[in-house]
Here is the input.
Amino acid sequence: MSLNIEELARANVRALTPYQSARRLGGNGDVWLNANEFPLPVPFELSQQTLNRYPECQPKIVIERYAAYAGLTPEQVLVSRGADEGIELLMRAFCEPGKDAILFCPPTYGMYSVSAETIGIEYRTVAALDDWQLNLPAIADQLDGVKVVYMCSPNNPTGNLINQDDIRALLAMTAGKALVVADEAYIEFCPDATLAGWLQEYPHLVILRTLSKAFALAGLRCGFTLANKPVIDLLMKVIAPYPLATPVADVAGQALSEQGIALMRQHVAELNANRAWLFEQLPQISVVQQVFPSETNYILARFTDSPKVFKTLWDQGIILRDQNKNPGLAGCLRISIGTREECERLIAALQALSVEQA
Here is the structure.
């Protein structure tokens, strides 16, 4: 009896629901407030013309510049195809399928579970507390057999920082047993909160970073894993031979120049100002029930009829991210911070909807 193609596939892949990225979900909008991207393109010129040669596995200028930017040494930095590849490399290097597990605390970023399922690694979840901080006693109870704990700070989609005393407690309880991975995709919006300075103290701490958010390069797919040399050496054993295309390394190097970093900081200041403006405006609208504080380039808000709000704005070309399926986020939509004009269009659309429902 011959198997069809579906039956040839691994059972866990057949059952898998792929990560629902903003682009997979589609929409025909012109105000994209659903993917936490920077709202405007940044200019770069390609200078590398050696496309007939394979690229360096770890481009020297990119590594050196990111290390200088992060306050680390080059041997503590690995560059990959977005931070998403970093998430997966850690599982591949440290977790034995069918034996080891990872752990994370929902509501949080969806790729931790998707990567684990794809590779065939058990994942355990410990729901965050009502204020979205770590439930440390519950985590302690679940750590047996866990090799990697993922923790997003600031957290996506809630926008809050994880309490640093709690992170130290987590690092203490996992010492010698598991890695703690701090996903800092949004750290440029609150740079003082980074854990990069903790690497010397904690050999099992790993930090994930990206150029997709504050650096306005989501289309580049360039991320970084920051860790001590023993961790980086192991990841180098499992990373693809040529993870970064030559044009990607070229643009990343420019983005990490002094001028590139200055431009990023200017953009962060603009987005933080727009976020503060939205944070003032949203609570004045009747369909908005609650607005949660944020340290990122997005705001999470709870609405009285979120499906209607989502669809009404979608039909007007304003695309938000629905969070209703995330634990504890019933009625919530996530709003990426756009340009001031985009933020004003959003508020006007919500005000019009409020008048209709009054």
